Amino acid sequence: MSAEKSSLLIVEDDVDVAEMLTAYFRAQGYDVQAVNWGEDAVNTCRTNHPDLLILDIRLPDIDGFEVARRLRSNQRTLDIPIIFLTEMRERHDRMQGLELGADDYITKPFDIQELRLRVRNSLRWSSQSPLTNPVTGLPERLLVDERLRECMQSQEWAALVVSIIHLAEFREAYGFVASDDVLRAVSLMIHNAMRGLGGANDFIGQLGGTEFLLITHPNNLSPLNERIRSRLEQSLEYFYPLKDRGKTSVSGERLGVHFGQLNASDGPFKSLDELKAKLSRQLV
Q: Are residues 43 and 124 in the same domain?
């Protein structure tokens, strides 16, 4: 995605910072809009859908975390890349931002050249729309959407969503390599379970960065759920280094797993967005 075709929304209540960022990125060839309130940011994203959001956390009305939460919960805005730019330096603040699906987290004072590069990289990544996840190799995005559209035309399917929770905290403590190893191992365990219990037309994809989607025959749903749940709950602790196994982390947030189920009988579904939203809401 080239800069001249990319639109940025800057959400910053400090007028001087907002004006500086607006002038700088316009000089770089971006289409830039700035707002000072969180509610304005949410409404602007829903109507104009910018290519990227530079978001402060401390805002006069709702904070940046709530802005991100609303955007990620709406099918129309959930894919907008978000870079937090904030004075909040505490680890739990960074973790909350990453848990909400932020693409990056930069603290003030910041290097404007570094911010420019991070904006460029986030835009390049979001524009690629890969067919498979670069970590697990599983189908995602367009391929997942294609399979879900097929489901909407059928009356005999069931979906299982498996979500790994607190992976952001794990990544912060042990690094990206270790967190990628978790995702690859989980995808392998899901594959093995599907191979043993599923059918020839079953599907495994990635619904989100930490969410796996399985589509199978309704008769296979319960045994698949039980086998995957059992294997994951027994295995998650072993992803930690030996010295940290069985310990309670400082935040108390260890790797865990949530499951959700959906059947054709839960429809009809009026649109793909409605179906995906219902899948996400099933996670408990």
A: yes
